[in-house]
């Protein structure tokens, strides 16, 4: 599965808008994840997960920054996220099912904040893009 | 499986009261067919599904979407007995329509996204969590009589 030219254009142009709110988007995405899918909290026993916690904010920023890196190198996401891919495969070992859950929560956050931009076509492009990102992050699992 | 708290029920029913079932139905089904094109396999008789605009403007898609969401509206009145409410529809989807229950999960998540688009800030993480419970309950109920 690879992104068409049109899909790449949609992602890159929306990212320019999104990047100004990157930090709060990250925090909101994680809040949505932990509330809708409480089992995902099992990966963060060492975190204070209360809304507004500094750790949540920091981690949310990290996650969205990585999505941004993928968007900025959309022609070679594998190379851009290679280190992160190894981290997830050898250290974090987050079960692959969770990437879908996080992707969904990020989509919902974007839909809520950018309703006019989130057309059916944009929705499809983002779903596919996050699916590609997820594949890259799990490709070294076994 | 899904036990809805008083807060869940309040979040679900109050948001639902603001939903235009026809518009939301068409948009939800349309987006399912655009974002997950393989779901078009069930709709050969619907005419043109050749582009996002063709799909979103297709009158059969809109009509069927409205039908689906109307049914969901019935479920919202019976949150404590989703299995009972959807028993017959479950049999229909298995025996006559041959729909893989995974499609119910996909549709549920598309609905959640559509609600986020139309309700923005009001669709808080807490409200979303209640709705995720709701769509998961519906998906489970619709799959409950598969054999």
UniProtKB/TrEMBL annotation, chain A:
Q: Which residues cross the membrane?
A: none
Drop me one GO molecular function for this one: iron ion binding
Q: Which SUPFAM superfamilies match?
A: Globin-like (SSF46458)
Q: Name one GO biological process term.
A: hydrogen peroxide catabolic process
* GO CC annotations on file: blood microparticle; haptoglobin-hemoglobin complex; hemoglobin complex
Q: Which InterPro entries does the entry mention?
A: Globin, Globin-like_sf, Globin/Proto, Hemoglobin_a-typ, Hemoglobin_oxygen_transport, Hemoglobin_zeta
Which residues belong to any copy of the Globin domain?
2-142
Which family is annotated?
Belongs to the globin family.
> What is the annotated role of this protein in its UniProt record?
The zeta chain is an alpha-type chain of mammalian embryonic hemoglobin.
Q: Output this protein's name.
A: Hemoglobin subunit zeta
Q: Which organism is it from?
A: Callithrix jacchus
Organism lineage string: Eukaryota, Metazoa, Chordata, Craniata, Vertebrata
